[in-house]
Amino acid sequence: MDGFKGRLKNSLQIQLICGLSTAIGVVAIAAGMVSYVASFHEANEMHDALLRQVAALANHQSILVSDLNNATIDANELELENRIILQSLTNPTTNVSTLPLAPTLPDGLQTIRFEKKSYRVFIKTRPDGERIAISQDVDIRDEIARDSAMRSVLPFLTLIPILIWVIVKIVRQMLKPIAELASEIDARRYQELHPLSVPSLSVEISPFVTAINRLLDRVNQASTAQRRFLADAAHELRSPLTALSLQAERLGAAEMSLQAKERLKTLRQGIVRARHLLEQLLSLARAQGNTPAPTSKVSVQAIYCRVLEDLMPLAEAKGIDIGVANSFDVTLLIQELDLVMIIKNLLDNAIRYTPYGGRVDLFLTETAQHVVITVEDNGVGIPMLERDRVLDPFYRLLGVDQTGSGLGLSIVKTVVGRLNGRIELAHSNQFSQGLKVSVLLDKLTYM
Question: Which domain holds residue 340?
């Protein structure tokens, strides 16, 4: 019950359906009750009119009521007689079907109780002086009246579920544009900040969509300004870092004490880390920006070789065995820079978190729907609970002494998301420990 109350409180659709259904139900029940009472009253009035008509007929035809009382009648007539009793008060008989009515009863309609039963009696004095009584069992009258009243109420009872079904359909149809807009927004990537389309929305929903479009425009402007600032700042910092690097190289050629050389080594390492961070920031800014549509196909194995050449010195410095585990190749219709960023950041991340003398393998496979780029290492791995967190910018694992910016996997996630692919992190299959990172790109889109 609490769940339904919660949905009722939070769902406009359920509130509309319940509110309109309740209103229709209350109106239908009230109308049914009024119709029932009116039909019941009308049926009783018709029976009273029938008694008058029987009396008028007996008066017009000069029927001898005493003869009618003593007549032998068939089953159908007996059924009618059980409903309407015609008898004379002037010349009463001992027929079992007649009622013991007092001769002094006044003319007109009246209700008389006899043997725990009520009868509706119409008494009339004929021109010849004879007084006649036409009687009818009240229970039979009420039964017929109830049947008639129920037949008048039946349409209301039938229409209630039909009207509720119609209300449900209408409300869902009216709220369908909102659900479609929600689905459209939910399916968008975070870079897709173009306005929502408003082809045929109602005047009540259009202001809401217009406000969302204005918000999207402001967010797009802020995001663009942020990316521009990030790229500009990284570019501006490149020159002084390059100058510092050159000065450090020149300083290394000069004679100095062992202590000064150690400090110079630390300075050079800091400059390298700063330059690496700048390159990562520039890559993140490019990944978050809009790129033109690709015009040519790119070989994945060719990018493997290109990236390995760039990162081989970093791997050799740690004695890491790195290479491509299979020769299978695929050409993708994709921006070359996007593919380079994906593979380079995956390999750089694997090399940095793989211990000295470790191993890093690259794989390229395909399924019915995807091309799968895989980098697997025997490094420290990533705990299951932190595999989603490491895809966030600047997040680094605690207790790991490796230096890094925390942007590598975030850049991969950004690029892959823009390409409508997905990234999966899992435990290494071929090593006792380590990490397996797979990037799945849609074959139908990029081949």
Answer: 293-446
Task: With CA atoms as reference, report the closest residue to 85 among 62, 103, 101, 107.
Answer: 101
pTM, two decimal places: 0.52
Whether 134 and 209 share a structural domain = no
CATH value at residue 220:
1.10.287
- Does residue 355 sit in helix, strand or coil? coil
**Does residue 14 share a domain with residue 66?**
yes
- The helix or strand, by DSSP H or E, that contains position 1, with its residue range, turns out to be none
CA distance 352 to 321: 13
252 shares a domain with 335:
no
Candidates 88, 84, 82; CA nearest to 46 is 84
> Residue 396 maps to which CATH number?
3.30.565.10
Q: What tokens does 157 get?
A: 């009872």
Question: How far are the Cα atoms of 54, 70, 75 from residue 96, in angstroms, in the given order?
Answer: 20, 10, 16
Q: Cα(139)–Cα(45) distance, rounded to whole angstroms?
A: 15
**Residue 172 covered by a domain:** no
3-state secondary structure of 152: helix
Angle at 107 between CA 102 and CA 108, to 5 degrees: 115
Taking only the tens place, the pLDDT of each residue in 292-329 is: 777 788 888 998 998 888 888 888 888 988 888 888 88
Tell me the pLDDT tens digit for each residue of 376-415: 988 878 888 787 787 777 776 654 555 556 677 888 888 8
Cβ within 8 Å of residue 240, ≥6 positions away: none
Contacts of 53 (CB under 8 A, 6+ apart): none
Strand partners, 435: 377, 427
State the Cα–Cα distance between residues 371 and 331, nearest whole angstrom: 10
Q: Which of 113, 144, 159 is the last residue in one of the domains? A: 159
Same structural domain, 270 and 192:
yes
What domain count does the chain have?
A: 3
Residue type, 362: L
Contact 99, 90 (CB under 8 A): no
Q: How far is CA 92 from the centre of its chain?
A: 81
Question: Which residue is it, tokens 């501006």?
Answer: 236
Cα dihedral 340, 342, 343, 346 in deg (nearest 10): 140
- Per the domain annotation, does 178 fall within a domain? no
Residue with tokens 């990018």: 303
Q: What angle do CA 214, 220, 226 make, to 5 degrees?
A: 140
**Are 240 and 315 in a shared domain?**
no
129 is written with which tokens? 């002086």
